[in-house]
Amino acid sequence: MPERAQVGYYVHHHGSGHGMRALAIARHMDCDVTLIGSRLPDADYSSTIKALQLPGDTAPGMHVESFPALHYAPLAVDGLRERMGLLADWMRSAWPCLLVVDVSVEVAMLARLFGVPCVYMRQHGERTDPAHLQAYASASRLLAPYPASMECSQMPDWVLAKTDHCGWVSRYSQQSSAHVAPEHGAVLVITGQGGTAFTVDSLIAIARRCPEDQFRVAGPLPASDLPLPGNLTLLGHLVDPLPELLRAEIVVGSAGDNVVAEVAHMGGRLIAIAEQRPFDEQRLQALQLERLGVALGVLGVPAADQWPALLQRARHLPGRRGWQALLNDNAAADAARIVVGTLHSHFGSS
Q1: Do residue 339 and residue 309 come from a single domain?
Q2: Backbone dihedral region of 299: left (phi > 0), alpha (psi from -120 to 50 degrees) or beta?
């Protein structure tokens, strides 16, 4: 048994944002941390941060039944059995431990059944269904990786009372762009690993409607053989998008936590496009950003003829001045402090 209490951090595999956030927070913890998931970030892990790779949890032809108390529990899926077994083995061998769950109702309930304390990562969206509320109730603390002013759903008071808001967690700080002026007409379009409604065809049509702007697209897109106009460049996957974020006058991306966090910390002007996600997650986040006046919230990719006016509206956003009151440059460190504090509340600090 380990001499010191340690933290396991379950990382959901959809998109890249969960993994980036986990690594940023783990680097601030003064204890041993194991990131656990099937799509962990590629990184140089330190002596105190380890990785436990899990198999996938799907199988051809599987049938997923719906239960009020569970979101995902298909029968006869080998990978699901293996991953839950590996999680169980880790909790047994790593005891005393705490599990951060970002995110899975079922993993949170497994931790509770093992008697392992849990810090559950909250997300945007209408998450008042029985399964979410059960996970929230079973957790020792809830951690919201966004400012309290971004709360936009009708959560019960008891959920809010056990929630700590650390703020948006970003790889970059406000200082990263403090002395850099963006290029007029530079538009960065980010298509995330979690899927995008953009296609090469739609981007070509948008670029042709906005000939004075230069569109640079970072991230995956469906393959296409169509010729590109001169003001459209496909960059593919970028390990570090910081140089592109710095030069962009306007950023176009999904209304997901990762894009919002990084543009917010850069003080950028954001067109937040709500992609189709469970529980209306991105739709509610996009609408709340618009209400706060810090970004334009758009439901789906607008038609090409709407983009000249949309970009002009984005240029009138307040940028850094608007984001300032919402930011916490110590968000990752504060999140780590909350997790480690919860660990110590259960097991002491030795």
Answers
A1: no
A2: beta
In angstroms, the CA 25 to CA 13 distance is 17
Q: Is residue 1 part of a domain?
A: no
Q: Which domain holds residue 140?
A: 6-167+329-347
Q: What's the helix, strand, coil split of the chain in %, to 5?
A: 40, 20, 45
Helix axes 105-113, 78-94, angle to 10 degrees: 40
Pairing of strands 163-165, 141-144: parallel
Give pLDDT, residue 176.
Answer: 65
Angle at 305 between CA 299 and CA 311, to 5 degrees: 65
Q: State the 10-residue block means of pLDDT for the chain, 350 residues long.
A: 85 88 96 96 87 95 91 95 98 98 98 99 97 98 98 92 98 72 97 86 98 98 92 95 96 96 96 95 97 97 98 98 96 98 90
Nearest to 169 by CA among 290, 335, 47, 1: 335
